[in-house]
Specification:
214 residues, alpha/beta, Rossmann fold, two-stranded antiparallel sheet, 10 strands, 27% helix
Length: 214
């Protein structure tokens, strides 16, 4: 059963097992996306579904999932602080792999300077210029994007070219960067409905692509 913790920042962290049982294991830190305006805290449907899927497929899989206290992209600096606080709680003996969806991809990059982070995975990542990249030197950076991802009126999206450019910039910063395109996939991986999480078409392809880098 998942363990939930409240952070001093007002965010929340959901763990697949108690912290004491995570010592010495690899931990995936799931970071969700954003909305335009300040909104009530909410778990990311795409990240929650993905972590659940990976947990069923990978023996011993351990994760921590962050819920920002303010998930607006205009508050990205606050979201980075939430992520740093979550990272500080995780065991010092454990390798940590930040996996970020959309804005969460940029946040995963922002916290990659921690010595426990050797691999960063961005899912349709949005990483604005204000996020530095020098902390990626010597790290593995895997960027995964849907070929049909686009910004549409009232619907968030990040075109795949953003990941291609990010891969080049990360490489210039000294990272070992790769790019994977999922044919036919849109921006999100899953959506939340009154009946629970519903995976979107190609969701399993996202999961398989992530698993290759864990």
């Amino acid at each position: 059963m998942a363990v939930e913790m409240t952070l001093a920042s007002g965010g929340a962290l959901r763990l697949s097992r108690p912290l004491a049982e995570m010592r010495g294991t690899q931990i995936v830190l799931g970071l969700g996306g954003s909305v335009a305006l300040p909104a009530a805290p909410r778990w990311s449907a795409s990240i929650t579904w993905l972590l659940g899927r990976l947990g069923r497929e990978i023996p011993g899989f351990a994760y921590a999932e962050l819920r920002y206290h303010n998930r607006s992209w205009r508050a990205i600096a606050e979201c980075v602080r939430d992520a740093r606080e979550a990272l500080a709680i995780l065991p010092a003996e454990s390798a940590v792999v930040p996996i970020g969806f959309s804005m969460g991809g940029g946040i995963a990059i922002a916290i990659a300077g921690d010595a426990r982070v050797r691999t960063v995975i961005g899912l349709a990542p949005w990483a604005p210029e204000q996020i530095p990249l020098e902390q990626l030197r010597g790290k593995r950076v895997a960027l995964i994007h849907g070929s049909r991802d686009r910004y549409l009126p009232f619907l968030p999206g990040v075109p795949p070219e953003h990941s291609r450019q990010l891969m080049r910039r990360a490489g210039d910063a000294g990272a070992l960067a790769t790019f994977t395109l999922i044919r036919g996939a849109i921006h999100a991986i899953a959506v939340s409905t009154p009946l629970g999480l519903v995976p979107l078409p190609h969701a399993r392809a996202w999961s398989a692509a992530v698993a290759e880098h864990l």
